[in-house]
C-alpha cells in the first residue's frame, strides 16, 4: 500500500453580523450537526408541501439571504469609504457581488416576515434581482412564493429561521456557512425525494472521491450532465484547500432539466463561482453545446442505463470512436462523449452502473474491448452499495485518459489499476452508506501512488483491495473490468498460535466428535432393535 501524502479535508465554516427578530445565537455556530439541525427545523415548516416543491422555496430564500449578506457587507464598507460609490452597481460587480435593489435586501424581507403579503414581496425581490443582474441570473430564481398554496405564516417562520444562519459572525464567515447550509439542504432534499432526488444530486462522498483522485488544480473542468453543480463546488473547494484560488479552474457544464439547471446556477452563485453552464432540453447527445471544446478534467454522474436516448441523427456521430452505442442503453454513449471532449493530457472520472464493466449486450462488450486496447481506461473502482439516493443499483467509477504518459508521472501504458472499495464506507442510516474521509484518502492515495506522482509513496498491490493489471491480463478475463476479478482475496491474518498446538487441539476435538458419533450409533441401533422386537411380538 502507498504511503499517501496527507490530504487536507475541505471543511468550511460560517456567518454574518446582522441580528434578527428571533435571536437564536446557538444557531450561528458552525458546530457539527448545525446544518442538520437547520434542515430538520426547516423541514418541520413545510407541513403538507412535497419535498420536490418545498426545496425551491427553502433554497431560493437561502440564496437570497446569501447574496444580500454579501451585498450589505460591501455596501456598509463603501458607505464608510465613499458613500457615493455605495449606490454604483459596478462597485459590486468588480468584487463578484450581485447588485441587490433596496426592496430586495434581506433586511427588508426580514422586517416584513410577518406580513400577509410576504409571498408577493419575495417574488418582487427575486424579479428585481434578476433584472439587476440579467447576465448571471436571468430566469434562474424561483418566483412563485405568492401562490395560495404557500402559507404566509410558514414563509415568515422560514425567513426567521434563515435569518439566524451565521448570525453574529463576520460577513465572510456568514457567507461561508450559508454555502454549507445550501449544500446540506440539497443533499437533504435529495434524500427526502428518494429516486427523483438522485436526478439532481450526487452524494458528497462520491464527488469527493472523484475530485480527490483527479486533482483538478488548474485548467478546464466539464460536466456534461451537471445536476445541481456539486462536482464544480467540490473542484473549487479542492483548489482552494490546496493553496489555489477561485478562477484557477474554468468551469463548463450542460444540463437538460431546466429546474435542475436553475439549482446549479444558484449553487455556484452561493459559492461565488463563475461558470458557463448551458441548458437545453435536448441534452448533451442531441445538442452538444460545447462540441468544439476540450477539457482537462471531466467529472460526471450520468443517469444509469438510460434506454430512450437514441436518435437517428446520431447514427454517424464522430463521438463514437470505439463503436456505435446500443440504442437501448446510453452508458457507452456517455463514456465516448466524455472521451471525445478530453484534452490530449486530460483525465475523466465517471460514475456508472456496475453492469457497464461486464455487459456484452449488443455492442457494449466490443466497445469496451476497443477502449481497453486503445489504452484509454486508466482505473476502475468498485463502490460499496447503498451510496445513492436514487437507486440501489451497485455503481462503479471509470477513470479515463487520453495518455498514460503524462508529464511528471510514470509511464503507465499497458496497465489498468483496479480498486475494490466495496467493503469501505459506513452506514449513516438504515438505507444509506457514505465513504469516510479515510476511505476517500485510501482510494485516492492508492491511485496517486500508482500514477507515480511526486511524494505519493510507492505503489504495491494489496490483495482484496487493489491490483495493477496488464492489458494481457484484462484480455484473459474477456475484457471484463470488474475489480473483484483482479484484486483477489484479502490475505488472512497470520495465526499467532503455533501449528503443533493448533493441530493437537483439532485432533482432540476430532476424537471427541468420533466418540460422540459412536455413542449415537449404538443408541440408534438399540432403538431399532427394540422396534423390531415390538413388531414381532
TrEMBL record:
InterPro entries, A to Z: D12N6_MeTrfase_N, DNA_methylase_A-5, DNA_methylase_N6_adenine_CS, SAM-dependent_MTases_sf, T1MK-like_N_sf, Type-I_RE_MTase_Subunit
Entry annotated with the keyword rRNA processing: no
UniProt keyword terms in alphabetical order: Methyltransferase, Restriction system, S-adenosyl-L-methionine, Transferase
One Pfam entry name: N6_Mtase
Keyword Methyltransferase: yes
GO molecular function: DNA binding; N-methyltransferase activity; site-specific DNA-methyltransferase (adenine-specific) activity
DNA methylase adenine-specific domain boundaries: 174-495
Catalysed reactions listed for this entry: a 2'-deoxyadenosine in DNA + S-adenosyl-L-methionine = an N(6)-methyl-2'-deoxyadenosine in DNA + S-adenosyl-L-homocysteine + H(+)
Region (Disordered): 1-24
Residue intervals of the N6 adenine-specific DNA methyltransferase N-terminal domain: 35-150
Domain of life: Bacteria
GO biological process, one term: methylation
EC number per UniProt: 2.1.1.72
Family in the record: Belongs to the N(4)/N(6)-methyltransferase family.
Name listed for the protein in its UniProt record: site-specific DNA-methyltransferase (adenine-specific)
